[in-house]
Amino acid sequence: MSNPGVQTVSSAADRVKVGLAIAVFIGGLVSFYVLGAQPMIARVGVILLGIVVAVAIAWTSEPGRRFVGFAQDSYNEVRRVVWPSRKETIQMTGIVFAFVAVMAVFLWLTDKLIEWLLYGLLLGWT
C-alpha cells in the first residue's frame, strides 16, 4: 500500500541538489574536526559556511521550496493561536497540581488498602 499524501523528490536534478546539500552540510561538520589545530573562530566559521551553502543549495530544489512554504504556513498558524493570559496559565497550573496531589493520595490509599487486604487478611502477616 502506498500513501498518496507522501511527496517524494521527483526529478533527477532535485535529487542531486538535495544530495549535494546533505554532502555540503556533512562536509562542514567534518571540516570542524579536521581543522582541530585552527582557531575556534575558523572552525565555527566552516560549520556556518557549510550550513549556509547547504541551505542555499536545498532552497533551489522543489523539496526546499515546499519546506520554505511549509515553514511560512506554520509561522502564520502560530501567529493565529490565541495564547492564554497569565491568570489563565496560573489557574490551569494550579488545577494540574491539585489533580496530581489528589491522585497521589488516592493511589497511596489504594496501595495501603491492597496491602492490608493481601498481607493483613489473606496471608495473616503483620
From TrEMBL:
<keyword id="KW-0653">Protein transport</keyword>
<dbReference type="GO" id="GO:0009306">
    <property type="term" value="P:protein secretion"/>
</dbReference>
<keyword id="KW-0812">Transmembrane</keyword>
<dbReference type="InterPro" id="IPR038379">
    <property type="entry name" value="SecE_sf"/>
</dbReference>
<dbReference type="GO" id="GO:0006605">
    <property type="term" value="P:protein targeting"/>
</dbReference>
<feature type="transmembrane region" description="Helical">
    <location>
        <begin position="18"/>
        <end position="35"/>
    </location>
</feature>
<comment type="subunit">
    <text>Component of the Sec protein translocase complex. Heterotrimer consisting of SecY, SecE and SecG subunits. The heterotrimers can form oligomers, although 1 heterotrimer is thought to be able to translocate proteins. Interacts with the ribosome. Interacts with SecDF, and other proteins may be involved. Interacts with SecA.</text>
</comment>
<keyword id="KW-0813">Transport</keyword>
<dbReference type="InterPro" id="IPR001901">
    <property type="entry name" value="Translocase_SecE/Sec61-g"/>
</dbReference>
<dbReference type="Pfam" id="PF00584">
    <property type="entry name" value="SecE"/>
</dbReference>
<keyword id="KW-1003">Cell membrane</keyword>
<dbReference type="GO" id="GO:0005886">
    <property type="term" value="C:plasma membrane"/>
</dbReference>
<protein>
    <recommendedName>
        <fullName>Protein translocase subunit SecE</fullName>
    </recommendedName>
</protein>
<dbReference type="GO" id="GO:0065002">
    <property type="term" value="P:intracellular protein transmembrane transport"/>
</dbReference>
<dbReference type="GO" id="GO:0043952">
    <property type="term" value="P:protein transport by the Sec complex"/>
</dbReference>
<dbReference type="InterPro" id="IPR005807">
    <property type="entry name" value="SecE_bac"/>
</dbReference>
<comment type="function">
    <text>Essential subunit of the Sec protein translocation channel SecYEG. Clamps together the 2 halves of SecY. May contact the channel plug during translocation.</text>
</comment>
<keyword id="KW-0811">Translocation</keyword>
<dbReference type="GO" id="GO:0008320">
    <property type="term" value="F:protein transmembrane transporter activity"/>
</dbReference>
<feature type="transmembrane region" description="Helical">
    <location>
        <begin position="41"/>
        <end position="59"/>
    </location>
</feature>
<feature type="transmembrane region" description="Helical">
    <location>
        <begin position="89"/>
        <end position="109"/>
    </location>
</feature>
<keyword id="KW-1133">Transmembrane helix</keyword>
<comment type="similarity">
    <text>Belongs to the SecE/SEC61-gamma family.</text>
</comment>
<keyword id="KW-0472">Membrane</keyword>
